[in-house]
DNA sequence: GTGAAAGCGCTAACAG
DNA sequence: CTGTTAGCGCTTTCAC
């Protein structure tokens, strides 16, 4: 077990004091009038022996951990993991690490994680906020931490936000169904008060209102296991034979819905049109390819990190930003209204 | 800005010393003969004011950070993010956090991350090792850190390992193609010396050898952008008209391959059979559904964490484990050998 | 039974 | 220009 080098070792080897090393390493040689010669000597030696300061000691001493805490709903969800990836990469290039936590949309878990982050002295928080976390987040903001909320808005919470235009994304998707001559358009969504789901529902309602069609919304509880979810959708569709198209508010629900449609012996597109909010699952390779509302994952990640890093690096408290990114609707074959020709790729 | 409570505050409020608090909080009240009464009083007060020790200070003082560093190839890859999720969950229940890093299979990035982990004083390492990291990992092991390698073996590296049976997984998949009467079976894989890819290739070669068929392997460079990758596969297929089936060694390659097949105006199953190693992408919903070798993601995650936690919690250095998990072959319609009927779900 | 004090590895006043 | 020193918040030895 090779003993890890510490600053004291370096100081002894080089016959200088710890602080001199520290100054040099933190680029403060100049303001402390350390000779270029000594500086180079130190730099060279440190490089040679591969010394790296213990982040944990630096953290204790400075109060800064150079890490960002990121709270997502589920890191195994492609939507979140893609964003996480973008954040990780850009943060790293500014010397920040990211620690993640999956909330499963649960208040208690989320708050536990946020407390854990806090005990780890994270410098900033990137949060897809589960319900019930408003107050804790507000505290974080009040205590002066940079907080960037994304994916879902929390009305009344004052901090930086990177959101997408759920209302118009949904509106556009449902209008597309209307354009394609579907007459009985249902929506399958989560049983949730979360802002982004409500906005998607509002978009749906608006589109149907505008065209005078009947509205039917089926809400599925959040933590239902997959098979139950499929069953609920199947029952819903079976009970409402008139439905000729469905707007799914999430990717996950759509996967369950497609399964349900299969179980009913129906075929997507030929028997029922479908369109999905969120395009992260190879929908273009499905049979038929599924029309979807694509969220700008990369942009979300970049914006989030950009705001976070700028807060972290400047201490001038700029006004909070609220960025709303546009979605991108992609029409594919799942929303053709007439019987579809054999479509095997 | 509400000042965070520290142990000193508690001590002052309660008129006892810091160490007493510390003992109680760490369940060492008994061995230090602290009265139950005092203990309860402290516990109650701590609970009431919501005091939580600074992990970073605890870390500095104990040398333990209660965090595990996890190195994956790409956290946005469903295979890795699913495993990460499992690890996160089980680690958390034992009080460990996980910090991730994506290596992009790059030696330098991987080592940088590992060093960063080390500076963060992580207590253990879970690693999907990129090429060229053997020595660094070996150092970690030599320095007494628990290290669990997964997904790919590094022959000659002595540490805990959780692997899957790539050879037999591939063998089975290709034998399936042979059974289905395909005669010109190609393999598309990564240009890589990594053990798991070689094993998959060996499985392919064995299956073809056993049945006396001609072997053709196309290797694609790792970091090619998607469109180039598609192009290379397209050219390969176009140049070898006789090919009637393809075994893709990764999920990602298969997605490119399906695109390439489309571009050539061919149809999967009808014109060309395909089977894929790794089943993480809703292949059952594709058109036609794609036959695949499923990796036991959940088991991998659980095994990895179990080994890690047992190392972390016991100091008796048990012998290294090498666990090899079986894959699960799923035959779907992409490997029917005769022309397929119209298949729209 | 309890508390003072040293120390984990680093930073940053401050003194010289 | 450089070094001494006092913390950061906690753990743990050892003396009372």
From TrEMBL, chains A, B:
Keyword tags: DNA-binding, Repressor, Transcription, Transcription regulation
One of the record's GO molecular function terms: transcription cis-regulatory region binding
Ranges in coiled-coil conformation: none
Chain ranges of the HTH lacI-type domain: 7-62
Stored Pfam families: LacI (PF00356), Peripla_BP_3 (PF13377)
Keyword Lipid metabolism: no
Name assigned to this protein: LacI family transcriptional regulator
Annotated organism of origin: Mucilaginibacter ginsenosidivorax
Upper taxonomic lineage: Bacteria, Pseudomonadati, Bacteroidota, Sphingobacteriia, Sphingobacteriales
